[in-house]
Amino acid sequence: xxxxxxxxxxxxxxxxxxxxxxxxxxxxxxxxxxxxxxxxxxxxxxxxxxxxxxxxxxxxxxxxxxxxxxxxxxxxxxxxxxxxxxxxxxxxxxxxxxxxxxxxxxxxxxxxxxxxxxxxxxxxxxxxxxxxxxxxxxxxxxxxxxxxxxxxxxxxxxxxxxxxxxxxxxxxxxxxxxxxxxxxxxxxxxxxxxxxxxxxxxxxxxxxxxxxxxxxxxxxxxxxxxxxxxxxxxxxxxxxxxxxxxxxxxxxxxxxxxxxx
Length: 261
Description:
- The structure is a single chain.
- This protein has 261 residues and is of the alpha+beta class.
- The protein has 12 helices and 14 strands.
- The termini are far apart.
């Protein structure tokens, strides 16, 4: 039996005040609760932030989409506003896990956990996102640090994620058939000032591929991908796929993503 104190917070200020010692925030719980059940994590207090109204919802402008941290994957997937402004983001959300996970899991929880095979970190990095916390604004380029590691400090709460609306974008994923996590996922975005190509599932953390970005900056077409060779050095090598196979799939998914833009 795992014992902990369960506390509800009415707003972000109250939530952060409740954090002390071995306490953590709880929204959808799709990662946190299994970790507790499997004895991979233990906490003295769970601070429920799901009822904080201003942490949920979607705001759209001509340049940005801002999504509250406790907004579920299902809400993003079914949002007409997201589907119109950044359809690739809605498609990504629709491909996360299963219906149960999509209806409970949240965007804030996903990026705070920073699983190396998660989908949302690739969207954050490709769409030049800004992560808004209760203390500061963190560019996605500086947010994701390593396996399950982010730039968040103790007691820092993600309040929203702000995505740049691209000229073109697409996400292509080669999923694990059981978990639906990405064995390799590639998010391609043609922004106003640059092209970004981001890979998830292939390494210990989400990462950009400069060689593909340069190739697509010169010629944004599927054919440009054919001339780029991806090294397998440093890529994951496990029971699901070898490093060499992942290197090959990166180019396959990148080409598929560009074709879908």
